[in-house]
Specification:
mainly alpha; single chain; elongated; 1% strand; 2 domains; PGAP2
């Protein structure tokens, strides 16, 4: 069995599949798809079971997502939901800037381009959580470029968001500094995280642990991404969205003197009431 495990890589024997149905069998976790990839053959003397975890190493997030089904599925759901929510919130925030500021030139370009960058970065992140190097061999090359492309899109979208913050009527220096700190931390640690993941794709180890420094870099990248996304919700504090029912209530882009029709009607009604009150007195 040990000799075959050094030679074969994906051979599956029917006897092993039958024996693995027992919960006490060492291959039960593999055949029940709790681990979605394993190296060095389907054997009882599996490399992952024999090699001890190096002292001081921590679990790697990309490796865990690659080899474990449950965290991969939950992250896919979170990314897909966040893709829609962040895109809509980004459009609402930029539209409010265009309405209340004379959005011309650079401001107008950034307000229109930032939602697109937000959508692209979220889409690339969704692809990162869906690809598997053993099951998606035809597009395996995408796994090499996914993280660098996402990093560039995320940093570029973050810089656009920072450039629009001073134009926001709800500008907060605290949120601005938090966003800037998240972008700096992500930019510094992204290189280490990419190197670690590239080594994983080339060496294909069947354990999820990496050196302490590499793991901390990955954790900082993920934390920076989550905190930056959370601070984007602060850009919408105090914002009221009015859903118009008439075509006259639709505002043209960059119209600073815009007021909905029902507000104009309300002011006219108030002036008539004042005139009637003055004439009666």
């Amino acid at each position: 069995m040990n000799r075959r495990s050094r030679i074969t890589n994906s051979t599956l024997y029917l006897s092993e599949a039958i024996q693995a149905q027992e919960e006490t069998n060492p291959l039960h976790e593999l055949h029940s798809k709790k681990l979605i990839r394993y190296d060095f053959g389907a054997s009882f003397s599996n490399y992952c079971k024999l090699k001890a975890v190096p002292y001081g190493w921590l679990p790697s997030i990309p490796r865990t997502l690659e080899m474990k089904i449950a965290p991969q599925a939950w992250l896919r759901l979170a990314v897909l939901l966040g893709l829609n929510i962040k895109f809509v919130l980004c459009m609402v925030r930029n539209e409010s800037i265009l309405v209340y500021c004379q959005g011309l030139g650079y401001t107008r370009l950034v307000c229109r381009l930032q939602p697109v960058m937000e959508l692209l970065s979220s889409a690339v992140l969704a692809v990162m959580t869906c690809l598997h190097q053993e099951q998606d061999k035809s597009v395996k090359w995408l796994m090499t470029y996914n993280f660098p492309v996402f990093s560039c899109l995320f940093v570029l979208e973050g810089l656009m968001s920072l450039s629009l913050d001073p134009l926001n009527s709800r500008f907060s220096a605290v949120f601005f500094n938090i966003k800037l700190g998240c972008l700096i931390a992500f930019s510094v640690c992204a290189g280490t995280a990419q190197t670690t993941f590239q080594e994983y794709l080339e060496e294909r180890p069947c354990h999820t642990y990496v050196p302490f420094r590499s793991a901390i870099a990955e954790y900082i990248c993920v934390a920076s991404l989550l905190v930056f996304s959370a601070t984007q919700l602060g850009d919408l504090r105090g914002l009221r969205i009015v859903v118009p029912s008439l075509a006259d209530d639709q505002a043209a882009s960059c119209s600073a003197a815009y007021s909905p029709a029902f507000l104009a009607l309300q002011s006219t009604t108030l002036s008539l009431k004042k005139a009637v009150a003055l004439s009666s007195s």
